[in-house]
Amino acid sequence: MEPERNVPTSHPEHAAGAATGSSERSPSGGVRVLVRYFAGARAAAGTGEESLEVAPAEVDSGVTVSDVLREVLAAHDARLGRVVAACGFLVDGVAVRDEKAPVSDGSEVDVLPPFAGG
Fold this sequence. Notes:
The chain contains 4 helices and 5 strands, in the order αβαβααβββ. It has helices at 12-15, 39-45, 65-75, 78-84, and strands spanning 31-37, 49-54, 88-91, 94-96, 108-112. The longest helix has 11 residues, at 65-75. The N and C termini lie far apart (42 Å).
């Protein structure tokens, strides 16, 4: 059995729009985001969603998609890292291609593996 590690917990009430008291940025300049995983990303993460506190990589800069991904990958094993490498991302329902795209406090970041349709 693996030793217990500090893994962020899921907060479904955040997804439902309930007040979380996180409207202020933390002293580190971080933000609280809800990360939602779909399909293979969900299987690799072992959860459908989780709430994360994310700090910017650089002092005096805003939080970006890259910062969120850094926290996601630090909280999970390499299996999720392999899936995320092929994923696309939505921030508050809008597709982002640039990992330097800003992420605001209270944002939802969706992790979407490639899929085929028809």
